[in-house]
Amino acid sequence: MKLEINPERLLAELRELATFGAYRTGVHRPTFSPQDMAARRWVIDRMAAAGLEPRMDGIGNILGMAPGERRRLLVGSHSDSQNHAGWLDGAMGVVYALEIARAVAESGRTDVAVEPVDWADEEAHFASFLGSRSAIGEVLEEEIDAARCATTGTPLRQALADAGLAGRERLRIEPARYLGYLEAHIEQGDYLDAHGLALGVVTTIVGIWQYRLTVRGQRNHAGTTRMAVRKDASAALVMLINRIEERFRALASERTVWTVGNIRLEPGQVSIIPDLAEMMLQVRDADPEVLGRMDAALRDLVEEANAAGPCSAVLELVSRSAPHAMSTALKEALESAAEEVAPGRAIRMPSGAGHDAQILAQVMPSGMLFVPSIGGISHHWDENTRDEDLVLGCRALAGACARLLTKAA
Predict the structure, then answer these.
(1) DSSP conformation class of 67
(2) Under DSSP, is residue 224 helix (H, G, I), strand (E, B) or coil?
């Protein structure tokens, strides 16, 4: 079985989807915004035109179901975006799924199917992986009641009502219906682009550990308090950040990354010595042992800081997600297809970003394919991928689908 994609149609639809919420050279399509819902209606129309039975559920997920008795693959990604971000993040995987579903229909095969899916709120405007987690039964009504938009503060219930989704049943994926789940995505890093590679077959999606580090000192006058007697929480935090940077570099693997993403000072006035300094720290790696090593080092550094004084520090592990390995069978299918369309230009690699595939991997075999991001830029309107790489990626994903469906059939 060979699935022939239409490159002109693929590129045209990618650019058409990018008109919804167009912003500079990217898009602004936050979850449940008017532009997000317009894009989702466009996806529904494309699914119907491909002979599928589209359904949008009560959390915004869209599934294009193929009628009849078939062996099926679930293929997709997400069409929502970060604020003022790129045109391919997620959207590429949705359009790939649509194109491959059409290729199956055009092949004349009625015993197999690719069912495209467009997950809601992968970008965590309301909650991380809201749509895919809902589809596997992880999202309770209480979470929906409590969720608020991180940007506007809008309650999720209100956003769903405004989007016309209130009262709709939420989709529950049936794992036994599918051979597995495949997702294509831009790399969002520079490895493929920098090394002249065309495709990356994802081995593992990294684990992410997030911490809150709070340092407490003594508030006092900035002009009259001698340096020797100060208990400056901000200075103590900065020194601790420097020690973390030094220690982590000695312990990290080649692909370990860490980020101080937010710092808050109280009272936050230039003439007052802060008595509180708080930061959020995130650590990512595909190896649980490395994550454990970094965690132990971080706790040691906090103990050392407390012993040295004059301020006190408290470390809190806010969240922890384990690395998620991709299915061996799906990796092999992706590798074979990648080698066929791009001989010698595909590698295995971990994903440094989180994706819906890590959620689906909890209930069914899952696999991911990366295409290069020019300059490694993502979550920004300058995000881009060369047309030839976009076409190559879709051909590779279609080839993997053909291998898996033929083997199953």
Answers:
(1) P
(2) coil
Q: What is the pLDDT of residues 286-311, one digit of tens each?
A: 999 999 999 999 999 999 999 999 99
Q: Where are the beta strands (DSSP E) in 12-143?
A: 22-23, 26-27, 53-56, 62-65, 71-78, 112-119
Q: Domain coordinates of the chain in residue numbers?
A: 7-206+323-408, 207-321
409 band by pLDDT with thresholds 50, 70 and 90: low
* Contact assessment for residue 59 and residue 139, using Cβ atoms and an 8 Å cutoff: yes
Give the side-chain half-sphere CA count within 13 A for 406. 12
Q: Is the pTM of this model over 0.85?
A: yes
DSSP 326: P
pLDDT band at 138 (very low <50, low <70, confident <90, very high): very high
Q: Please tell me the distance from the alpha carbon of residue 154 to that of residue 239, in angstroms, as a whole number.
A: 37
Query: 207-321: what fold?
Result: Alpha-Beta Plaits (3.30.70)
Name residue, tokens 């987690």.
Answer: 133
Helix (H) or strand (E) holding 45: helix 34-49
* DSSP letter (8 states) at residue 19: T
Bond into 267 cis (ω within 30): yes
CATH class of the structural domain 7-206+323-408: alpha beta
Pull the structure tokens for residue 256.
Answer: 């370990």
C-beta of residue 255 within 8 angstroms of C-beta of residue 204: no
What pLDDT does residue 407 have? 83
pLDDT at 1 (0 to 100): 87
